[in-house]
Amino acid sequence: MPEPGSLASTRREVVAGGGACVVAGTAAPPARAQEARKGTPNGAAFPVALVVNGQRRELDLDTRTTLLDALREHLHLTGTKKGCDHGQCGACTVLLDGRRINSCLTLAVMHDGAAITTIEGLGTPENLHPMQAAFVRHDGYQCGYCTPGQICSGVAVLDEIKAGIPSHVTADLTSPVALSADEIRERMSGNICRCGAYSNIVDAMADAAGMTDAAGRQG
Amino acid sequence: MYLRPSTLREACEALVEAPAAILAGGTDFFPALADRPPPPRILDLSRIDGLDGLEIIDGVLRIGARVTWSRIARAPLPPCFDGLRAAAREVGSVQIQNVATLSGNLCNASPAADGVPPLLTLDASVELASSSGTRCLPLAAFLLGNRHTARRPDEILTAILVPVASPDATSCFLKLGARRYLVISIVMVAVLLEVAEGRVRSARIAIGACSAVATRMPELEAALIGASPAALGSLVRPHHLERLAPIADVRATADYRSEAALELVRRALRRCDGAAA
After folding, report:
1. Which PANTHER family match (chain B) (predicted)?
2. Which fold has domain A45-121?
3. How confident is the model at residue A33 (pLDDT cuts 50, 70, 90)?
4. At what angle do helices A198-208 and A130-138 cross, to 10 degrees?
5. pTM as predicted
6. 101-160 in chain B: CB under 8 A from chain A
7. Would you give the end-to-end CA distance of chain A in angstroms?
8. Structure confidence at residue A17 (pLDDT)
């Protein structure tokens, strides 16, 4: 069974300028584990360690804080956007241990010790991730608000295809998944762009994936 | 109060003290609150070992409480699980499938829960643990109504148990929504079909989002026994679906749901027939 965890090495390859990726243990220190067992009162600070874009970050959070708010309000990584805050738009998409998730739908405390990659960790203005560069080249946005989520999702989509994970439109479930515009469109369904930049997003992803065009012809 | 026990026993003991909102994937926790404040107690299952198994033992697939939709979609399971895996690929979005669990889908007990119709056709049960022991309930006995289950406040759903159907069984799942992703289903149909010597040996059909709880269609199932697989679509009649009680809401009128359910059942039967050939 291809486990999502197998994507982790792929993701590390594509983290631009990520340096050493700190792998933190998921086991909480005894004192903290004890506290979690007997309970933390609402409003009390709870220590959470996240490895964000390769750096270990320690936070004291209200346990009801979403991962999205932890990133934006506590770590000031405002690249990740709050669109609907309901899991319906995909603007808050980040990579959790290499898999894409909606950061608005999960509590930060549930991911103590996990590795999070945000748009800031994919590349920098001077050293863009290939997916970021492709979005710029193909004008894969208009207002830009959904773009960080689209790009994080796009990176994960290419990893999922590489890992051979079929989608709803994959016709042959036994052979490797072929890259095509249909596959890209299908897999990007969790990211909404209200400006309607979809066709350019497909072109950008096809380009980043090494396809010559979005008609499905392989480059 | 936030509780993150590391054993099932501790989790059950915490629920004896007072009930809590139980989080497996937790993706529906905030959306379901709407504008209400979070509940006073949250029990996080993320650190309990033994809840993330997905394996077939002695002819029964055991799906642990923390197994995500993505893992079900990607698991190499026999064809009788194709319908369940199809539901796993269409629920929410991939971002949600990577976190949300099938167990959570059942405990939320939405009339439009995508996991329920396929599991009803598979005759699934749920395992409930508490400090006083463990019990199993058939899924149909677990789901009591809209957002209402037989889970006691001191119980945790620890696994879904699914007997593996005959290797000849084929299954499928069709869902109608305003679009395929990130929508609440208007109608869902799951079919599991066994065909022997060119005739239907058994048919199990469940329809969701057309009654408070998704339900099997025994009258229709009986009408299909012995029929030729190619003819199944044309055997479906409106009176076969009289158990449904569709409502009108923002997504569809009741009449539209009835029509769509009929058409979706016919399509699902034709699709299963094709897979069996």
Report:
1. XANTHINE DEHYDROGENASE SUBUNIT C-RELATED
2. Ubiquitin-like (UB roll) (3.10.20)
3. low
4. 140
5. 0.89
6. none
7. 29
8. 35
